[in-house]
Amino acid sequence: MAQSSSKQNLANLMHGYNQIIELARRVYNDPDLKDWAVQKSLEAEGNFTETNEKLKEFFSIDFTSDTAKKSIIKEGSEVEVLVDHMDGMKGSKAIVKSYSIPAMLSDITMKDGMKMNSHKWLTNDEVKLK
Q1: What phi, psi does 122 have (nearest 5°)?
Q2: Of 1, 3, 56, 63, which sits most exposed with the smallest number of CB within 10 A?
Q3: Which distant-in-sequence residues (6+ apart) come within 8 Å of 13 by Cβ?
Q4: Between 42 and 116, where is the model more confident?
Q5: Of 82, 91, 127, 130, whose CA–CA distance to 109 is shortest?
Q6: In this predicted model, what pLDDT tens digit does every residue of 13-37 receive, in sequence order?
């Protein structure tokens, strides 16, 4: 069985491939680089599709579904923790350290001031975007 940390790594790959596609398309208007840029964006699209299939196969997550797109919380976002996995966690603030689908790595500052760096994992429905 695949490790839960692999889910986040695959999600991060998906975001990376999206960025490559977008950046390569910006070069399409340069006649000297267009053919190269088209090839790079097509390669990234293939990698994106292949990685999405792995997410579906191992974790039953379709990154391209409307539900997944709506529930992505981006890296650097501040969220409020809605659950009490441990005393003092509910109502605390967290900074998302990795893109989420459906779980995220985060730095949490508990209500009593205690800090937890790289806490694994909060799910999207356990936090509220601030």
Answers
A1: -105, 140
A2: 1
A3: 47, 51
A4: 42
A5: 91
A6: 888 898 899 999 999 999 999 999 9
pLDDT at 29: 95
Q: Which fold has domain 71-129?
A: SH3 type barrels. (2.30.30)
Give CA–CA dist 50/95, Å, rounded.
30
- Contact between 55 and 11 (Cβ < 8 Å): yes
Q: How confident is the model at residue 40 (pLDDT cuts 50, 70, 90)?
A: very high
Between CA 123 and CA 106 the distance in angstroms is 11
Spatial distance between the Cα atoms of 47 and 78, rounded to a whole number of angstroms: 30
Is there a contact between 108 and 90 (Cβ–Cβ < 8 Å)?
Answer: no
Return d(Cα 118, Cα 1) in angstroms, integer. 23
81 close to 89: Cβ distance less than 8 angstroms: yes
**Residue spans per domain, the chain:** 4-64, 71-129
